[in-house]
């Protein structure tokens, strides 16, 4: 066990700045008995001045390898562009540095597999993924309900999450944003990775995927910003995932239909659970014709058939991120179970890749698709952009 986690933040942008801010403010929610901020790294010269102002005594590095070699840190978090996640992560593990990888863990499954292999080779290190929504009490409650089969067996899962509106100026802020070669895609790799993880964490992995995407809908970008994906979980169980970044009004509704009821999550705040008094199939077989007539006429008392509960959840700013940092540190120091082991990160990447590939090939694809085919198709689009090197 390690005496204390000495964290290095690589990338001092919005996300890295937020994490550093927890330490700067001595946030009482942060378990500083097991974790401290030890250094910051960024290759932007302007960030060096900013860090000097914010943390005058803190070591600063403009090269992450120098940080890894310094002996100042024994753990890092990677708040950098997506394609840098895997390389930096693998280098950290080789140096014996614990890794808390930002989402997505990588852009394509082939590179993520290399990172997972490295984490197993250097097994004395901890590899975790920053899936802060797994600490969200609301979604932990939904997972508990599904694990306990409170609404029976899964029949259908539908998530509409279109609350990611982004104006053109957002995409214009850097030349790597919303590109195949610089970012690896659009809404699927930028805004939606948490939902792609939660959907599988709660409902399980699909077997096949069919998707229709729009690229640059209403925006001057090459990547997807409108997604409609149909998921096939096998045995007649289906799902759908709809997301976009050009709906200024937006909807966030996660609906899970089971053989004994339904779970509805609205705006990631309100949880409604509706349980049938008997399994739907049994009600179908035993309902009298008299009650059927009442149903047709809108006269049926649904409370005789459905028990409903509603729970409200409040999001406390920063709490979920702090919970991840605490869990990561307590795993290293005290052996606490990880909430989001790093290798879980490949599931969301694989689903995003499947959605892309289905759209590119205009056909249904296996969830466990040909990873080399995906990379070939991705590289075709990188070549067409003409701004970045292809990937391997």
From TrEMBL:
Signal sequence annotation: none
Record-linked InterPro entries: Gfo/Idh/MocA-like_OxRdtase_N, Gfo/Idh/MocA_Oxidoreductase, GFO_IDH_MocA-like_dom, NAD(P)-bd_dom_sf
Location of the Gfo/Idh/MocA-like oxidoreductase N-terminal domain: 6-125
Pfam families in the cross-refs: GFO_IDH_MocA, GFO_IDH_MocA_C3
GO MF annotation list: nucleotide binding
Superkingdom, natural source: Bacteria
GFO/IDH/MocA-like oxidoreductase domain span: 139-263
Family annotation (PANTHER family): D-GLUCOSIDE 3-DEHYDROGENASE, UDP-N-ACETYL-2-AMINO-2-DEOXY-D-GLUCURONATE OXIDASE
Name of this chain's protein: Gfo/Idh/MocA family oxidoreductase
């Amino acid at each position: 066990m390690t005496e204390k986690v000495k964290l290095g933040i690589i990338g001092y942008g919005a996300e890295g700045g937020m994490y550093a801010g927890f330490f700067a403010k001595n946030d009482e929610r942060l378990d500083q008995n097991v974790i401290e901020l030890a250094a910051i790294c960024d290759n932007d010269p302007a960030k060096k001045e900013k860090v000097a102002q914010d943390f005058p005594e803190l070591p600063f590095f403009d090269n992450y390898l120098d940080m890894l070699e310094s002996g100042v840190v024994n753990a890092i978090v990677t708040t950098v562009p997506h394609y840098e996640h895997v390389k930096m992560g693998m280098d950290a593990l080789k140096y014996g540095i614990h890794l808390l990888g930002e989402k997505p863990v990588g852009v394509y499954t082939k590179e993520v597999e290399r990172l997972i292999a490295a984490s197993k080779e250097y097994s004395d290190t901890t590899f975790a993924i920053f899936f802060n929504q797994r600490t969200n009490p609301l979604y932990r409650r939904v997972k508990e309900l599904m694990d306990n089969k409170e609404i029976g067996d899964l029949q259908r899962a539908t998530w509409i999450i279109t609350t990611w509106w982004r104006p053109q100026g957002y995409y214009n802020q850097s030349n790597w944003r919303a590109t195949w070669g610089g970012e690896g895609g659009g809404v699927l790799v930028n805004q939606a990775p948490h939902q792609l993880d939660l959907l599988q964490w709660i409902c399980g992995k699909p077997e096949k995927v069919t998707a229709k995407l729009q690229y640059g809908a209403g925006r001057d970008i090459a990547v997807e910003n409108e997604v409609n994906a149909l998921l096939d979980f096998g045995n007649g169980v289906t799902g759908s995932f709809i997301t976009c970044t050009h709906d200024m009004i937006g909807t966030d509704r996660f609906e899970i239909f089971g053989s004994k009821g339904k779970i509805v999550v609205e705006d990631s705040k309100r949880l409604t659970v509706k349980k049938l008094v008997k399994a739907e199939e049994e009600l179908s077989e035993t309902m009298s014709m008299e009650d059927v007539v009442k149903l047709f006429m809108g006269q049926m008392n649904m409370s005789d058939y459905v028990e409903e509960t509603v729970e409200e959840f409040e999001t406390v700013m920063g709490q979920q991120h702090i919970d991840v940092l605490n869990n990561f540190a307590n795993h290293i120091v005290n052996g606490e179970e990880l909430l989001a082991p790093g290798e879980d990160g490949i599931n969301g990447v694989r689903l995003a890749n499947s959605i892309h590939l289905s759209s590119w090939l205009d056909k249904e694809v296996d969830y466990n698709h040909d990873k080399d085919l995906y990379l070939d198709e991705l590289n075709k689009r990188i070549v067409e952009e003409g701004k970045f090197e292809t990937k391997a």
